[in-house]
Amino acid sequence: MPLTTAEKRATFRKLHGSGCFVIPNPWDIGSAQALQHMGFKALASTSAGFAWSIGKADNRVTLDEVCAHLTALCSATDLPVNADFESGFAQEPEQVGANVARAVRTGIAGLSIEDSTGDKDKPLYERALGIERIKAARAAIDADTSGVLLVGRCEGFLVGQADLAMVIDRLQAYAEAGADCLYAPGIRTKEQISAVVKAVDPKPVNLLLGWPGLSVAEAAELGVRRISVGGSLARAAWGGFMRAAQEIAEKGTFTELGNGYAGGELNKMFG
Question: Which SUPFAM superfamilies match (predicted)?
Fold first, then answer.
């Protein structure tokens, strides 16, 4: 029988207790079901991958679109789903909390809140406001005892503020504000990763790996609890699509189509 939402959430929390697991990022129902078929234990949505799938740029989707997408993903798989909830689709803590409460009702097992503003001149929320936003998300999750896991993200390395001390300070503050898991996308070196892990211990750390580099085993040795790939799987899929389509458009040949995954195997997997 399909797992209940409560069972998915309990399973998700248990995964964060020890070891290191990969939480790949599907962008639609088919990719989510394929990842479940491959044996992954949990999934995470990708704001970029989903946006591209509906013909939008990243960070240009609406709250309504994201909640409908999360509902579809959660309904399509027995795996727990962690939501890439961007910056909460609001600035003020009160509205962030209201939006988080809505996201919780989609059936997600986890949810991340970023501290990026989308303003290139002032890319991060002020520290105090960032903390209040995490507190509001925590309160919204706790209001219905949902058990959804809250991830606090500091986007410093992604917005050109690669100050490790600042990022660690914020992650520690977000942990104190109620985040269950901490995330600093963009850190890459073993020294950076190890410093973040130690700084927020015993709370788990999510590591973004969207490029060749560390293996799962190496990340685990550094104390990383979970690994996500962001929009990288979606980019890989788009890479194959664009190469094949451009060859047809520009050369009138069809060589790249020979590299596609076997249709019969796809039918078998989804059958």
Answer: Phosphoenolpyruvate/pyruvate domain
